[in-house]
Design goal:
By secondary structure, this protein is mainly alpha-helical. It has a domain at about 20-65. Helices cover about 80% and strands about 0% of the residues. The protein has helices spanning about 1-40, 45-70. The model has no long low-confidence stretch (mean pLDDT about 85).
Length: about 80
């Protein structure tokens, strides 16, 4: 019973950490897109297009990372 509770707790903690890292990655990607659009196009891209681009890049990265390796959960006994 204790092992199952520890496994559930571990899944919750890891999920929260991954959500926080995804948000940080999205913010960094959004910043890079805004700066790159200012440099390359010499004018600002619309806020909606920048958010859409950052969301698609983040989504692709997260799905690609999830599919590229098979996670294993090993609990110490």
């Amino acid at each position: 019973m204790k092992e199952e509770l520890m496994a559930v707790l571990m899944v919750i903690v890891v999920s929260l950490i991954l959500i926080l890292l995804s948000i940080v990655y999205f913010i960094i990607t959004l910043f890079v897109i805004k700066v790159a659009s200012d440099v390359v196009f010499d004018n600002a891209v619309g806020e909606d297009m920048a958010v859409l681009a950052a969301a698609l890049i983040t989504l692709g990265t997260m799905i690609g990372g999830a599919l590229s390796r098979k996670p294993t959960l090993v609990l110490a006994k």
